[in-house]
Design goal:
The chain is mainly alpha-helical. It has a single domain, classed as Glycosyltransferase. The protein is about 50% helix and about 5% strand. The chain has 13 helices and six strands. The strands form two sheets. The protein has a three-stranded antiparallel β-sheet with strand order 2-1-6. Strands 3-4-5 form a three-stranded antiparallel β-sheet, with no helix packed on it. The protein starts with a helix and ends with a helix.
Length: about 375
Amino acid sequence: MDTELALSRVLDRVATTLDATGVRFPYYADTATGEWTTTGDGNWCGGHWVGLLLLAHAATDESRFLHAARRRAETVVASVEQASMFYGLNCHYAGFRAYDLTGEETFREYGLRGADATVEYFHQGARQVPLGTQPIDAPASNFRGPDPEDGSSGPSGDVLGAVDAIQTSLPVLWRAFHETGDPTYRDTAVSHADRHLDWYVRDDGRTWHHAEFDPASGDLLRQYNELAYSDETCWARGQGWCIAGLARAYAETGAGRYLDALDATVDYYVSNTPDDLVPYWDFEHPDAPDVPRDTSSAALVAYGLTQLPEDGATEPLRATGESVLESIVADYLTPTDGTDRRPPGMVTDGCYNGPASFAVSNELVWTDYYVGSALARRAGVLD
């Protein structure tokens, strides 16, 4: 894989996206045309766009990317619901990651704000950062939920946890610990990650999407899959969130329990994907192979595994991450050589919401971020 060439495609896409979207935030794009559906404030994932703009600035030193990132970071931090597992994610990318690249104190403050809000929102009984109340710009009423007698699948506020949170909520805590030395951030992250092993990682390495718990005691009430085909199958992006989060937990702690869970979840991932290591949106969908793929799952796996520390225990996992990244670049990243009429640098075949048939074969802004970040790290643009 030509890493420099692949990264240049992603940077081209950041530039054309900025030109096309103006002050709005890209959300998901039509794979045939490259036209973006946008939001005014980034919705749950605007920090990924800030991260891409900062990546473009770091790689090119063009001031327009930094100027755009500053404005959008302010919007994201002000608009994302603090009572949400997504607040920490956005403050990490629009805050700490921006601070690392620029040294600007405002970005550092954004990061600390996100970490403090995440600690405050952490449910001590459940030992989880709950899903929360962030409105999602998608057809939530059409999500596949639990059986009707168990209640609807809509937002459950403080009584619902999600597999995503190990990656959306914890990185800002790890980073705040390194920034301040305050063990509260580290201890909160470890407590959540340990509960994640209990509630979301199944014996065979697949994951649950949701864990509902009693708001008073924190006791587990039930587990179910909202974005998978069924409770007996596995949502691909949820597996990706889990793998990326476990990789970070192991990198931060060196704890064998996280490495063991990572081995199991990656083994399930590899064993249940096609040969190119990009899964269907549900690994065990009965209609496969006539089912959309999900590059956003693959992007998270590549992003997480390629940042593992280089030690003997992680060598096979890092190799898997490199293979997944190479597959995305080879088969799902639109080229710059004129052989494709679409904009260069699109990561195609992302599935937002399979059960609702919503944006099932699209470019997704968070996929672009994780692919771009993995490439930038490989190219030496990012640490």
